[in-house]
């Protein structure tokens, strides 16, 4: 496994730590009735790979757990991301013929 793999793993760890931290930060701000993190910012972190961190933050801080947009939206984004990874992995490593077709 090359350097690109380690860069990708590092990115996933960092973006999920950010997702977790942003949920804790937003929860503290909510308790103090202060300015909050925009929901679109939280979703953007999820889109860029931070869904696991956000879900862990939702559970740990009991934050955004009553908002259907988050309860269903973040896991759905995660599902789509995992599906895309599975398709890429399958086409590249399991079935090389499919990968060759995609490259054309």
Characterise this structure:
This protein is mostly helical. The protein has one domain (3-103). Helices cover 84% and strands 0% of the residues. The protein is built from four helices and no strands. It has helices at 3-31, 39-61, 68-94, 96-103. The chain is elongated, with a radius of gyration of 17 Å. The model has no long low-confidence stretch (mean pLDDT 89). The chain crosses the membrane at residues 6-25, 37-58, 70-94. Keywords: Membrane, Transmembrane, Transmembrane helix. InterPro entries: DUF1294.
Index terms:
104 residues, transmembrane helix, mainly alpha, membrane, elongated, 4 helices
Explain the layout of strands and helices.
Layout: H1 3-31, H2 39-61, H3 68-94, H4 96-103
Helix pairs in contact: 1-2, 2-3, 3-4
Task: Please summarize what this structure is.
The protein is mostly helical.
Largest sheet: none
Mean pLDDT across every amino acid position: 89
Secondary structure: helix percent? over 70%
* Total count of strands: 0
Shape: elongated
Keywords: Membrane, Transmembrane, Transmembrane helix
InterPro entries: DUF1294 (IPR010718)
Transmembrane segments: 6-25, 37-58, 70-94
Pfam families: DUF1294
